[in-house]
Amino acid sequence: MAGNLDTALIRTFITVAEKASMTAAASTLHLTQGAVSQQVRRLEDVLGASLFERDRRGLRLTGAGERLFGRARQILALNDEIWTEMTGDVQRGQVRLGVPFDLVGKGISPVLKSYNAAFSQVELSLVCAASPDLKAGLAAGDIDVALIEEPVGQGSGECLRIERLVWVGAKGGTARAKRPLPVSMVSQSCAFRPAVFNALESRKVAWRTVFESGNIEATAVTVRTDMAVTVWLAATVPDDLEIMNDDPELPSLPAFAINMYWMPDGAKPAVRALADHMRNHLFGKDGPQP
């Protein structure tokens, strides 16, 4: 006979997993540390498995905890959607989502589709800009939720995914061999720009910028026509372009995190639901990717 999972215990488990700390989770949930520990133990007793173990960096998920984590967030997201729909908590009005140019395609489409289906009465608007500009918009109150691309470990937002930053060129193209290297960037405020040019300078590779307009489609055109190379997160590279992993002349690039920023305190239910959708549907995956 199937058992029943307590969503309160699930919520506590997810918060502890995300914070890697009972103390931090207690602060977030407005509970005592003892209450959080007790709820985790109750869930472990129900499932008959240990969910956390401790290492030098704090708490980390066991194998059983890893298996539960993604499903648990789906359960909680569905619970919250049903609750807001049935109780009428979703407010009418606008929710503003800030997204970097390169995430608009493969990354964000499933999120927008599922959110609009679940909360059709909410007016969702999309703000596209470079990550530093989105951060400024969030601070100014012009954006409710923002996805920010930042070097791993440098941001304070909730990490949804970690992706390799890769060199991209036309298939069979020759722009990669030119010196100075022609580089096409979306904008001068692009989050990747400092990392790219620092890497080139460290390897003493001469370079020049070909294009910086704030238009990712125009940037892609310069790459497709073999005018230049560019950089993208590996998961966002268009299928008709080539990731240049095997070019020894190009310097390696750091990984970047896709971090979610929002103001949970006092947030509208519709904003909370959007944050849950980001966690569960970004790139069709659950949780940060290695």
Keywords for this structure?
two-stranded antiparallel ribbon, 39% helix, 9 helices, disordered C terminus, alpha/beta, globular, seven-stranded mixed sheet, 290 residues
Shape: globular
Q: Roughly how much helix do the residues carry, as a percent range?
A: 25-40%
Number of strands: 11
H/E element string? HHHEEHEHEHEEEHEHEEEH
Distance between the first and last residues' Cα? 37 Å
Number of helices: 9
Uncertain residue ranges = 286-290
What is the C-alpha radius of gyration, as a whole number of Å? 21 Å
> Proportion of β residues?
15-25%
For the biggest sheet, the summary is: 7 strands, mixed
**Structural class by SSE content:** alpha/beta
Give the integer mean of the pLDDT values: 86
Model description:
The chain is α/β, with parallel strands linked by helices and 290 residues long. 39% of the residues lie in helices and 23% in strands. It is built from 9 helices and 11 strands. It has helices spanning 7-19, 22-29, 33-47, 63-87, 109-118, 131-139, 193-202, 216-224, 269-281, and strands at residues 52-55, 58-61, 93-99, 122-128, 145-151, 158-170, 181-184, 207-211, 230-233, 241-243, 255-262. The strands form 3 sheets. Strands 3, 4, 5, 6, 9, 10 and 11 form a 7-stranded mixed sheet that branches. A two-stranded antiparallel ribbon has the order 1-2. The protein has a two-stranded parallel ribbon with strand order 7-8. Helix 1 crosses helix 4 and helix 5 (109-118) packs across helix 9 (269-281). The model is unreliable at 286-290 (pLDDT under 50).
